[in-house]
Description:
This protein is an alpha/beta fold. The chain has one domain: 3-Layer(aba) Sandwich (Rossmann fold). The protein has helices at residues 9-18, 33-39, 50-63, and strands at residues 2-4, 43-47, 67-72. Strands 1-3-2 form a three-stranded parallel sheet, with helices on both faces. β2, α3 (50-63) and β3 form a beta-alpha-beta unit. The two termini are 16 Å apart.
Amino acid sequence: MFYNNGAYGVQRMRQQRDYGGRLIGVTHNNPDFAELAKLYGAEGRTIRAIGEFRPAFETLLESKRVGVLDVHIQ
């Protein structure tokens, strides 16, 4: 499972705390990790809302394959 907040979380937190919220170089654009997993023959699911987690997780367990859950968080 991969928690994807689109940022380097610890560095972002430190910049917010220590530099008055000025953020430099902490956000990034990730690839689509679920699609990338599929390209390698694994199961891949992207989760953007809490209600999507359980069905995606159950699908992953039922597949009996290596899998990636790309969980988008804020």
